[in-house]
Write a structure and sequence with these properties.
Oligomer: single chain
Strand content: over 45%
Order of helices and strands: EEEEEEEHEEHEEEEEEEEEEE
Largest sheet: 9 strands, antiparallel
Structural class: mainly beta
Helix content: under 10%
Shape: elongated
Amino acid sequence: MQPIVFDGVGTIAVTELDGTLKYLEDKVNKVTMQMQLDWEKVMGGSSGYAFHYTAQDVQDKVSIEIPRFSTILAEISQGANTVEGSVDFDETEEGVLDATNGYTVKAPTKFSGTFKAASDKVYLKDTVTGKLTALTRVASAPTALQYSIAADGKVTSDASNNGKNIIVVYKWTKTNGTKSTFTGIRRPKPFKFTHRFTLVNDKTGQDVPCQLTIWKALGGGTMDVSQERKKAQVSTVNLEIMEPDITADNPNAYAVELIFGI
C-alpha cells in the first residue's frame, strides 16, 4: 500500500449491538488507537538470558476526545441513564420592585417554561451592605416585610419597598427536558464503535476513505461537565475492546478492523 498521511478526524458513530444508531458525532478533537501486545520474558538455563517469550493478553488502547457534552456520551462512558420529560430548574434572580409592575421573574418566559407555584422565597437586598432581609409570602395586601406573588411569578410588595432591589429564589418547570442520571453503581452497556475518516495519499494527493471498527466495546474515561470561561470542555472516552460474537456482519469475530480504501 502506498504511504498515507493522517489529515482530519472525521466522524464517529455508536450503535447498539442490534444495529440501532445511538450516537453520531462530527465534532471530534482526537481519536487515538494504540495496538499493543506485551511479551513476558521466560528465563531458562544458567545464563540468565530469556529462554523464550510468552504473549500476554492483548492490551489495545482506544480513546476519543470530544469538545462538547452529550447525554449519550454520559451513557457510554459512565453508564448513566437518559430521562426525557418534565424537569425542574432552581433559579435565582435579582431585580428591582417597580411601583407599577412590581417584578416578574424572567427565566420561565426566556426558556418557554412555567413558574412553579409556592416554590419561591423573596429577600430585600441592601445595595450598600449586601444584607438580605427575608420577606414573608402572603396572598394579598403585603406589608413592608411581606410580598405577594402571582401565578406567572410577578412579585409585589408594600409601596415602601418600591425601587428596592430584591432577590427571588424559585423553581420553574420545562415539560420537554432531558436529564442524565448517575447512580453510585454504574455499568455501561457494550456497543459497536465506528470511526469514519479520510486520509491523504502522500504520492497522489488523493483522498483515501478509511474506517476503524470496534465490533464490541465498553466505555469508560472522564465525563467533563465543567464550565470555564473561554475554554471548551473536553470529554475523553476510553474504549475497552471486548471479544465480539460471531454474526453475519462479522463472521470471523474480529475484535477490530482498520480498513483503507487504497
